[in-house]
Specification:
143 residues, two-stranded antiparallel ribbon, 6 helices, 2 strands, 50% helix
């Protein structure tokens, strides 16, 4: 879960699906908590909107990120990018595929599919298999 922080600027190796998705879970989980902390401390945007109706009073609450959420996002830009690039390397694709997300809707869906694909078995041009499968060891013996 914290491996992307230890490999902060590593853009040349490979990352398993497990590393990527645990980091994403951690990133969004902490971000979600920080949204509520920002709201509780008054650091966020509008936290509650009240509307009078004919039948009585109804209120709807909304939470937006604030200062802490923004800092969390900025601090995690490089680890998020690096982990995504390493994940693409595991599927034997160049890191430039990250920019496919700039294509509205279709790009994000395609990127999600790429992040869900299993990595290539054995070594590829970006390094050894991070799963360290038995086949990868046998492959290196016969090379």
């Amino acid at each position: 879960m914290l491996a992307p922080y230890r490999r902060y600027f590593d853009l040349s190796s490979r990352a398993r699906r497990k590393e990527y998705w645990l980091y994403m879970l951690f990133f969004y989980g902490v971000g979600f908590v920080l949204i509520f902390v920002d709201s509780a401390l008054g650091l966020g945007g509008p936290t509650q909107t009240a509307v009078d109706t004919v039948d009585g009073f109804s209120a709807s609450a909304s939470a937006e990120g604030g200062v802490l959420t923004a800092i969390w996002g900025i601090v995690n830009v490089i680890p998020l990018l690096a982990c995504s690039v390493r994940r693409l390397h595991d599927t034997d694709r160049r890191g430039w595929w990250v920019f496919i997300t700039l294509i509205p809707l279709i790009g994000s869906i395609w990127f999600l599919v790429l992040m869900c694909l299993d990595g290539t078995t054995g070594s590829n041009r970006f390094g050894p298999d991070p799963k360290d499968r038995i086949g990868a060891k046998a492959e290196s013996v016969f090379e």
